[in-house]
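Hi V.,

You were right to ask for the full record rather than a summary. Here it is.
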Amino acid sequence: MTRLQVRAVVEKRGLDLEFEVAAGEVLAVLGPNGAGKSTTLHTIAGLVTLDAGRIQAGDRVLTDVATGVQVPTHARRVGLLLQDSLLFPHLSVLANVAFGARSGRRSGRRDAHESARNWLAEVDATELADRRPRRLSGGQAQRVALARALAADPEVLLLDEPMAGLDVAVAASMRKVLRRVLARGGRCAVLITHDLLDVLTLADRVIVIQDGGIAESGSAAEILTTPRSHFAARFAGVNLIAGSAGSGGALTSAWQLDWHGTPAAELRPGEAAVAVFSPSAVSVYREAPHGSPRNTVAVTIAELDSRGPGIRVRAEEQPDGASGLAADITSEAAAELRLAPGDAVYFSVKAAEVAIHPAR
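Predicted structure:
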């Protein structure tokens, strides 16, 4: 059972963060492009040098800038699975996986091949043993790459968008394999992804990296149901407005109006807070509505997207530069309103649909 502890500072890439991954836990790392997600994985793998910090897996120190410790990549017992499988084209599938076994355990040829066959069976790829990589589909190549990584007996498994580029059915099958192998052995895993399904099916906990630091962290359920950062909110498909707590369950924001809702926890006036609500709770009007909705803002439509039987209406950026609010309406309502990008409309949401949380 191996716990991973990371404190990493890479000045030229603006990275400065600290986190832990418990033994047997899968940590999903989310964030916009350029936030520092891949750099984080590369520091753990020893591919990027730290300016300050310490990385430890179990009782083994992999990197310690203060004491000059820097374990070479090949000796870290850290497996890295990328979007590109990077299989050796001149070796058979069996030989590729056996290479992982020999490099990780320093085992002999016979033991390495036995281990390779076991791992190919584990990832449902036994029938591929004699093929060369050029004869594999994308999903088959990723299964083989996973078998090779696991054959090296890593204590930590790093997954950098391994399902990206796979079609829906193949990605679903790959997730099933990953879920099975990650559930055993006590190794921890760090998963970079842009796919909500990866988080739902594989992750125990989530951190959101923004501008090289951790914007929020929590269980997968917490991040997806009550996000506290704009990136996590858009990832989870909900609206988020940042501001400060007012009186009576209100949130004061850059909109220069109070958003009314239900406080999910006790909030002190002036405390940083966020309002969260579903796009399906938002109504769209051409004229300012009258009646029950307490939260109404004037917005300009940025884009319209088809969402199954309905339409998602995305507004331009919020006054503080955050992602624009979204409303999900029926196709009939969109046709009746004759909506188009650039149109000025009103978004309204009832106070009962708005949850107000302390900001992390």
